[in-house]
From TrEMBL:
This is BolA family transcriptional regulator. Pfam families: BolA. Belongs to the BolA/IbaG family. PANTHER family: BOLA TRANSCRIPTION REGULATOR, BOLA-LIKE PROTEIN 1. It comes from Sphingobium naphthae.
Length: 77
């Protein structure tokens, strides 16, 4: 069963409370998403560390109920 975009955003915000999260359903199938996550907590972290923080927030759902996630992370301007 695919994961809802709102559920993905909620999980990320629960783990990274200051995150601004935008989720886009890339294929219209509820299974292939793009996420843009902006957080002050990413400041000073490498891009890899930022993305690991987001994947950790998803609690191991990548590759299971969440099939594909194109991830972009950033710090606020």
């Amino acid at each position: 069963m695919p994961m809802a975009a709102d559920d993905i955003a909620d999980m990320i915000r629960a783990a990274i409370p200051d995150a601004q999260v935008e989720i886009t359903d890339l294929a219209g199938d509820g299974d292939h998403y793009a996420a843009r996550v902006v957080s002050e907590s990413f400041r000073g972290l490498s891009r890899v560390a930022q993305q690991r923080a987001v994947y950790a927030a998803l609690g191991g759902r990548m590759g299971g109920v969440l099939h594909a996630l194109q991830l972009t992370t950033a710090v606020p301007n």
